[in-house]
Design a protein that fits this description.
alpha/beta; six-stranded mixed β-sheet; 6 helices; 6 strands; about 15% strand; globular
Length: about 180
């Protein structure tokens, strides 16, 4: 699979930024989408009842903007969060911001509850019940395992599943970036 070579990653990043620029050109205000950013932040303030955005969330505002467009374009309403660790709490904030209903939290190793959600084992739940899935796993190898499962079920990264710790270099391809295929 050559989807994660330096050239392919570069092409995907170029497409992503071109998409943002072209979308910006369609707007009345050619500024830096200030109205959208303010709307997203205001929405987050209201839904999370916070006075400040976390530093981590501020750094991801462009990624969240991209996800929000996909959510709206596809009329997504529900989400499953795969992983019940540190990053999952932030992921729940994303779901509030994006107005997504969390159907389930999935984890292979943890039991109990996460912020009021029951943690299910992968084989105890219907993964396909959710419109999208956020992989909220800090361990790269764990992310790759979940990516393989989701892609075998026909899911597509950055379309109907997303990595919370998004990194274009994480690939389910066994070859390292830059190696010959």
């Amino acid at each position: 699979m050559d989807h994660h070579s330096y050239e392919q990653v570069g092409n995907q990043l170029e497409l992503y930024y071109t998409h943002i620029i072209e979308d910006n050109k369609k707007r009345e205000n050619y500024g830096l989408m200030k109205k959208d950013i303010q709307r997203i932040w205001k929405n987050l303030f209201q839904k999370c009842e916070k006075k400040q955005l976390s530093h981590s969330l501020k750094r991801k505002v462009w990624f969240l903007y991209y996800i929000e467009k996909i959510v709206k374009e596809n009329n997504y309403k529900t989400v499953a969060i795969w992983g019940a660790g540190y990053h999952s709490v932030e992921t729940i904030e994303w779901c509030l911001l994006l107005e997504l209903e969390v159907l389930q939290v999935i984890d292979s190793y943890k039991k109990g509850m996460l912020n009021g959600y029951i943690i299910n084992k992968p084989d105890e739940c219907n993964i396909n019940a959710a419109d999208i899935i956020f992989i909220s796993i800090g361990n790269v190898d764990g992310c790759k395992e979940v990516m393989k499962v989701l892609e075998m079920q026909g899911r597509v990264r950055n379309k109907n599943y997303f990595l919370v710790r998004n990194n274009p270099c994480i690939s389910i391809n066994e070859n390292k970036i830059g190696e010959e295929q």
